[in-house]
Amino acid sequence: MNDQTFNGLGNLKHLKLNNNNLTGEMPNKTFEYMTCLADLDLSFNKLERINLQTFVGLQNLQNLQLNDNKLNYYIINFPKGSFKPLESLTRLSIHKNNFLSWEYSTVFPDRTISDLTMLEILELDVSSGLDHKPILGKGFSSLKNLHLLNVSSCTVFTLENDTFMYTPNLTDVYINYCSLRVYSKGHEVFSKLMNLKVLQLNASNQPHPWIEENILFALISGLSETPIEILKMSYLLNLINSPSLSIIINKISILLNKAPIKELDFTKNENVHVSQMDIPVQVPSSIRILDLSANSLKVIKLNVKQVIFLNLEDNSLGNYLANNSLMMEESSLEYISLSNNSIYKLHTTIFIGQKFLRVIDLRLNFLKDINFDMNSLVDLENLNLKNNKIKYLSDQSIKKLDKVFKNNGNAKIDLSNNPLRCNCFTLPFLNWMRNEHKHFNNFMNYRCEYENGSFSLPNSFEDVILHLQRDCTNHSYLIISVSFVVLAFIAVLSAAIIYRHRWKLRYLFYTAKLKYTSHRNMEEKFE
């Protein structure tokens, strides 16, 4: 490319040059004639350097994607002033450009980024290294409109009391794939972000990502005076020698009790344990979404009556839920996910009193039937039973679902990827499915297994049932006919045997009669 490549395209607003094997440096004034351009995508190339006048002419550009290149964060690759033409830029994606290490820091040159005074969203790489270089230097103080920071490629992120000193207007902070290092007391790290509403801390993909509970508690305590609404934490704790999950969640809840927190995610932690003797998990009264997925939980007690959305998927609650209920009392719960929990049976009372439930997700388990009480589920809209072990539903389960369908004509159930059986025994169940097909998601895509082990073809489920109905009817007639033939044969055979041995039978009859008469005469004589 050169400074004439885009000559004549002055009215173009969107330009995608991603995945084009662009290499080396971007020449000066490459986009000089593209004064109306609003979106420029240069991602997934092999660019190594931005020149001082590369972006001349892009004064109306709003979105610039430079991610997934080889633009290492050195001042020589991003010279001061190279971003100055980008007067209207509101979003900059410049992550996944560095080889990150634990030893050396990777910090974007703040003198260069200081020219982006209209910037609102920034996605970048971070590694604090061993030299503790400030991640968000003084140049970031010019970014008065910056409200979203997404660290999506990272090794170590050092959190200190002054980490966000120059970015006080942040509302959304996402620190992903980082091992968190906290040298300060912790409680002041986020306390100065007085507009903070969303915080995500994700330490996945790191060899030793965990932090100590007291440090986590200190970080969270700093949020108590902020307007935080969403807090997401993943891969942060190894609880092998720590209190149970319920104690930790309850401690977090106390620390956030004054904050207007609406969503709390605490997922993918190591060596989590909860015993049946532990107190129930409680959360602040403002919370509506609670995510405790992927914690390897084997036991859980909940007292979260104000929660609307509850995610418990990817745990190991199968044995516990076979013999115990989940909620301590009636709640406002509308959505619950228990998928992938090795559930083979649910306690009958698990959903009793949960009259607001609209969605129940039980995918990827080992259920063979619906054995739980559904009388309270008057608002149920979706029951997801995909990828279980259901061959057919019992008459009792069908009655339960009929009641649900009666309460809500739009209620749906999903039995996809279950080993449904196609035979005469399951025909009543299959006919019921066909009659109620509007309540089954992807009904025509269902498949079932025949007695010979073969499977029905996709997109033919209704035809399969109709064919099976005819076959089973013919089979019934055949059974009746064969039964009559067998009975007739037995009758004829019996008659033939009697006829053949008629004289012998007559002899035996008269012999027995004579003995009976003689015996009776003897008794009368002695009397």
Automatic annotation (TrEMBL):
SMART domains in the cross-refs: LRR_TYP
PANTHER family in UniProt: MSTPROX-RELATED, TOLL-LIKE RECEPTOR
Pfam families linked to this entry: LRR_8
Keyword rRNA processing: no
GO cellular component, one term: plasma membrane
Keyword Ribosomal protein applies: no
Protein name: LRRCT domain-containing protein
Top-level taxon in the UniProt lineage: Eukaryota
Topology class, membrane: Single-pass membrane protein
Subcellular location: Membrane
GO molecular function, one term: signaling receptor activity
Positions of transmembrane segments: 477-499
Gene Ontology annotations of biological process type: signal transduction
Keywords: Glycoprotein, Leucine-rich repeat, Membrane, Repeat, Signal, Transmembrane, Transmembrane helix
